[in-house]
Amino acid sequence: MPPDATLLVIGEVPDRFTANLRQLSPALKCESVPVKTVLAVTDYKGRNWPLALVFSDPVSTAAGKSETRILLSRARDLMAQRVMHISVVDENPSQSAWSLSDSLALGYLALGSGVCDSRVCTLYEFDIHSYKVSPDWLNAKNWANPQRWDLPFEE
């Protein structure tokens, strides 16, 4: 990320986490957007951040699975080229607001898990630049065959 880049922070990220980020990259600018704003607004006036950080915690937020799905979809589709999602899993995983299969369904990849404040946190990533590798056959040479446009139709 360029040194003058702005990190978009969506949701309630713990102060300790943003302090660690600022320690690693002092020039990093953080712009915070509340979850309710992201859920309510559908037009971001062409603004596209290089990186968005989404933090979801089923205990401290009332966002359920459907709201989390909308939040992550909007962050991915409208707001940032790369999205990092930190999901906190409650002590009772059956009541967790988010799961690995939910992330995979939206195109996010699980990067790893760790314990934070005696709770499991999982880091997911979506990067538009590495989301899908284009197959060899998908190119201008094999696609439209313009050299055949003037030939008679073959049945």
In short:
This protein is α/β, with parallel strands linked by helices.
Give a verbal description of the structure.
This protein is α/β, with parallel strands linked by helices and 155 residues long. The chain has a single domain (6-148), classed as Rossmann fold (3-Layer(aba) Sandwich). It has helices at 15-24, 35-40, 65-79, 100-105, 140-143; strands at residues 6-10, 29-33, 51-56, 82-89, 109-116, 119-127. It has a six-stranded mixed sheet with strand order 2-1-3-4-6-5. β5 and β6 (119-127) form a beta hairpin. The longest helix is centred in the middle third of the chain and has 15 residues, at 65-79. It is elongated, with a radius of gyration of 20 Å. The mean pLDDT is 78.
Number of domains: 1
Shape: elongated
The mean pLDDT is 78
Q: Count of helices?
A: 5
N- to C-terminal separation? 54 Å
Instruction: Write the H/E string, N to C.
Output: EHEHEHEHEEH
Cα-atom radius of gyration = 20 Å
Give the key terms.
155 residues, alpha/beta, Rossmann fold, elongated
What's the topology here?
Elements lengths: L5 E5 L4 H10 L4 E5 L1 H6 L10 E6 L8 H15 L2 E8 L10 H6 L3 E8 L2 E9 L12 H4 L12
Parallel strand pairs: 1-2, 1-3, 3-4
Antiparallel strand pairs: 4-6, 5-6
